[in-house]
Structure formats: structure tokens, C-alpha cells
Here is the input.
Amino acid sequence: MRVQLTAVGLVTVMAAGGLTACGSSSSGDTSGGGNRTLTLGTTTVVSQWDPYQNDWGPFLQPQQAAYDSLVHRNPDGSFAPGLATKWRYADPSTFDMTIRHGVTFSDGTKLDAAAVKANLDHGTSVQGPRTDEIAAISKVTVTAPDQVRIKLSRPDPSLPLVFSAVLGQMASPKALKDPALLKKKPVGAGPYTLDTAATTPGDKYTFVKNPKYWDAKSVKFDKLVFPIIQDSTASLNALRSGQIDGAIGTLDDVPAAKAAGLAVSSSLSYFTALNINDRSGRQVKALGDVRVRRALNYAVDREALQATAGEGQPTTQIFPPGQPGYVKALDKAYPYSPAKAKKLLAQAGYPNGIDLTVTNTAVLFFDRYGQALAQQLKKSGIRIKIHNVSLPQYQAMRLSDKNPLYAWFYNWIGTPIDANRLLRKNGQYNPYRVDNPKLDKLIDKAAAETGARQRATYEEISKEVVDQALFVVTNIGKTYYFYNPKKVKEMNYVPLESLPFVRGLEPAS
Amino acid sequence: MLRTVLRRLLVVVPMLWGIATLAFCLVNLIPGSPARTILGDGATAEQVAALDRKMGYDRPLADQYWTWLSHVLRGDFGTSLLTSRPTTADVGARLPITLSVVAGAVLLTVVVGVAVGVLSAIGGRRLDRAGQSVLSFFMAVPSFWLGVLLVFLLSIRLGWLPATGYVPFAHSPGRWLASIALPCLSVAAVGIATVARQTRGAMLDVLTKDYIRTLRAAGVSNRSLIFRHALRNASIPIVTSVGFQFIGLLGSTVIVEQVFALNGLGALTLSAVNGKDFPVVLTVVLFTTTIVLAANLLVDVANAWLNPKARRA
Here is the structure.
């Protein structure tokens, strides 16, 4: 449910998953070839079905069942044709797509270039959790019945990625005109359709195979059931007792899951950090001084902190391994050194150390993380007062311009989008609107480039961010998924995603 | 008795109003904005403020309160900010789950609690002692812990009952019963122990009364003596206690719903509070208040029926 957007972000990363097939186990459904059911616990389901007003991440599985996207993504993260068979940037500000023939939506409407235009026009006219990703679209034109041309107000290289997630999910243009309908059920051209009779909103969602799906032979399960289970213990119990076949897991539960014969997949999907909102020192003067920010970076022992973030790895940078912008050497940029930290603080005019307040919430991993950080920083003369607030209050404060410093994690989407969100003057994760013309210029430059050049520019951005110590990034965290290998072949993560995709899942036998 | 009922009903209206008003104030103390929840991290502060304005959450509180109250009086409880469904539909979908567990637990409490209590009272010293030890144990055990234990034994190890989830009665009465068995058992344990102790005490007390001795001397059968005479008189404090159990259970299901992944009222309230979904929170408060008041009324009526003295009180 949209309700929990932000909370859900937290929940996805750190907490549980899973739901339960109501009542008796689903294992009985595996035997016959005719009725294969896969039951996947989920912590949350979207509360309405207009893709443009929905988030992705923890919501992606049911959405992927209901809707097909313009672009598909292979397990290695590379792109593959979806509802669009071909696409290319004619120039950095023009994107052309060829739309697949012979596809119909579940209400019988035909998918063509006009339908895609209707979707994108709708998407740019509403405000949703992800619509910043298509903010650069200025005009969509139908150039032939199966050809769409998108003009951009500024170069944006992320469209294939954007169109492979929620904003590339095509809804029936007829349904888009009827918001009341999309509040109740999805009307897409996806591999499954929602069985409303077997669905209780907020409790359990049942999808049945769409026989008219254009790639129906790739759909190997006849039914997908998503029960909502928010508690990680309940989720693991449901898995162990065979009520569900897969669900998001926690690091703490990995040994128990393995002992129960479950398969565990994982993904490096977020970084944890002491985040500096007040990068210019408007509210807390010291934070505006690069020497203080560097001191903070030297004062954290990333190796020791790793235990709080799972089995990822220590890091100093905002981009993840394997993605544009990641520079391996940068991870050694700030080796743990209280001596260096103290020296830098003294140079900045704080020979006796400084006092800082960190906003935190005493739930999930934040409690452990915040405490550990405070302990470490103390050794460098940085006295942290942790200001603990409730989770709802934390959600509300995190991205406000009255919250200079806080513990957090960030779920990656993809380098071009992450750069926009984290660094740009009007980025969502820059609530103090700190202006850094050099970074903005580099981001624009990268957006207009391709290939090796673009990678080099993103690396330059990463170096600048680390050098200016705009964040105190400490660790990369892993997200875990538990599934029953006797029921489903493989449920691996596509890089950076919060959940394994449901597209292409195959029965184990 | 009719007067008792009418008098109680008169109190219900101002009580509902008072609780609703209090709930409205409390809900507005929850930090954060509904728009932030709806729009997610992707939205800027400006966009969040704009949506809050659009939904009317920038208006003075008194203003919002008046709008809300006048709608409620007309039977319009509003729509959920997050699901856009009428809040009554959301609450209506979740209520059966919670009520199934609570009602099942109360039934279990009464049947088992009274049976164990009566047996302890009349079954001889050895049985009584054994019963007392077992009851002390169950009174001390937290229900969520018992729930976890039951799931481990009965679901994971033995596979007898489902570990999580709810099946509506209409889909399959058998599976419905299976789905609520463990939650009922785990929340009822404390109540069973309490009611059993109370029954035992009241029975022992009543059984020493003169009229029982007289009845026994008059040759009334043992069964009739215990069930028709002793238990009926002993049941007044038991009924009151069961009424409290019911109300207490309604509140304590939040945790048990988490353990068993039952998406009942507790789960709904939790997500509504986290998402600042005011209309849903307020509707839940009004519904549960009504249920609690109705339960209280029922206890009063039952007491009046059992005890003629109470009718005049």
C-alpha cells in the first residue's frame, strides 16, 4: 500500500516479508501440471493501480504480475525488448521507440504508439513517488502507428532503465481515463490479471495467468498469490511450514532459513550513511566546513560498522560496485583514523572537538547503527547526541530542511537517477537546496554522453563527492530473499532491485 | 431491565463523541504528513506541501474537526487517504478477522475456563492442586511468546495447523477454524486461567452456602446442584470478567496479529498510523469504541438477568 511508502522502504531493506497462503498449504498445487500456484509473501502491495502514482522497490512483484513494461531487464541487469521491441537515442534529447504489434490490454484495448503516448502524457501530468524520473520529458509524438518519439527538455540517459520499472508499465488508455477503476484493479497487458474475487485488499492478492499475454509461453505458473506478511518471524514461519514459497528475509534469519532447507538470494541494494543535509552549514556552521566533514569520514570505522548493515562491504561513495560512477580506489579514501580526524577538527577551529546532534529512530537497524556510530565518533572528539524520534516522525523529518544530520540508508535505482536525487540543487535528497554548480554541470555533462565517456564523468562526480565529503557513506547493505527451491527454480535479484522479479519464474520440477 | 438498557444507551452518545474528539486530537499529534506518505521520498518538500493543501490538511484544526464531525454525523466516515476506498470498506474487510479471533478466544475462555474452574472446585484436592499449577503457568506466559511456541510445535514441526494467514468463513468453514485456532489459543490462555481461577473461587464460595446444604439435604441431584444452582450464582463475577477479557483482547490482538500475519484491525491501525491516514484511524476508533460499549451493555444485561438485585441498581 502506498501508505507505507517510506516506511516500506525501511521495511524492505531491513525487515521482513512474506505472507501467507491462507489456511492450508499451497504445496498441494505443485503436483499437477495444470494448476501451478506460486505464493510469495509480501510486506506491502500498492493501494491503487495507476502505475504513475505508484512506487516500485518493495511493491514490484504484484505490479510486475499485472503490468508489462516497455523494456525488460535480464538477470544481469542488461535490457531486453518488452512492449517496446526497439529503442534508441536519436540524440541525447530525443528517444525513439518501436512498439510491439498484436498486444492487447486486459480490457481488450489495443496497445499501439498512441496508447504509449497516452500513458506518458498521463504520467507527466500527475505527481507520483517516481515521476521525477520522467520530469525531463517535454513532448511525446506518435510518428507512426508503432513509433513513438520522446523529446526531452534536457539530456536524460536513464529512460531505458526508467521504462523497465514502474513508469514503463503500460496501462490501458481507457482505464487511465477512469481513475475510479484503477483504484480497484489493474488494467494492463501483463502476464497475469488480478482475480478480484480471490483478493482481499490489504490482506491477500491473487493473480491468474493471462492467456492473451503476448509471451504467454514464458509464464510458467498459473497463479500467483501475494499474501501480506509484515512481521519477519511470521514470514519465516509461513515459509518453513510451506504456506508460502518465497518472501523477503532478514540477515538475522539467514541461518534459520538455510537450516530449514530454504534457498537464500541476496542483492547489494542500499548504502548506509550518516547523512549531511546541511552541507553548506546554514544551520550547523561546522558542517559547512569540508575539514569537519572529512573529519567525520575519518572518524568512522567502516569495517566495524559492517556488522550492522549485513554482509555487504565498507564504502565511502554513493554509487555501487558494477554501476557507472563506482571507483574502487575511493573506498580507501578515508581509512579509520581518529588522529587524522582530530587534526582536521583542530585545523577547522575545533581543537576540543565538536558536539553534533544526529536524528535517528530507535527501530530496525537504525538503533544499532546510530549507537555504533556515536561510540566511534567519540574517539575522535566528535560528541554525538542522538535525537531519537518515532518512525513516523523520522519519515517526516528526514527530508526536511530542518534536519541537519541523520542516520539513514539509500536504496539505489541507477546512477543517473541517483545522481539527480542525491546531488542536484533541487534533488529530493538535498532538502537544504545546497547549490553545487560544479556537480550540476558534471551531471548535465554525463547525461549527454554515452559509453566510456559517460562512465568517466560519473566517476569524476563520485570523486568530487568523496573529496568534498558531502556524505559520510559507511557501508553497502544486502537485501535477502528466502524461497523454497523445491517449488521455484531460481529467484535471483536483478542488480539494485529490492525484490526478485516475478517475470520468467519457473517451477522447480 | 429495559430501563437499564435505555439508561446505558443514553450514556453511549456523549461517550462516543468524547472518544472520537479525543482520537481526532491524538491523531493530529502524529508527526508527519499524509502527502509525504502518498508521494514518497521522490517528492520534494514543495510538492508535499501542495498535496497537503489540496487535501485540506493545511486548514486550521478546528475547521478540519468540524468538517469531519459533520460528515460522520451524516454517516460519512470518509475515504482512506492511501487506498481511496471508503474507510468503512477497509474497516469492514478487516473487522471479521479480528472479531473471529477475539470471539473465538472468548468462547474458548468461557468453555474451558469454566470447565476447569468447576472441576477444580469439585474434583478433589489433588486435581485442584495440579490445576492451580498449570493455571499459574498460563497466567504468567505472554501471549505472543505462546503464539510463537505454538506455531513452532503445531505448524512447523507437526504441520497440523497453518502458521499464518486468515481464511474467510464463507470460503471454507473448516479452514477458517484452522486459521484462527492458534491465534485464539495463544490469546485465550491468560483469560482461561483467569476465568478458571475465578470460577473455582466463586464455586467454592457458593458451595459452602447454607442454601446449597439445604438443597443437598432435600435430595437435589449433584449435577443439578452444581450447574443449576451453584454455577448460576457463581457466574456473575465470571460474566463481568469475561466482558473485560473481550475488551482487553480487542486491544491486545495488535501483537498477535503480527505474529500470525493476520491483517485485521490491529494491522490496519498500525499502517494507518504510520501513514497518517487519519480517516482510517478515526473510523477504527469509532468502530471499536462502539463494539466495546456494546460489550459492556451486554455484560450489564447478562448480569441483570443473572442477578435480580442488579436490575434495580
Residues 1-33 of chain A have pLDDT under 50 and may be disordered.
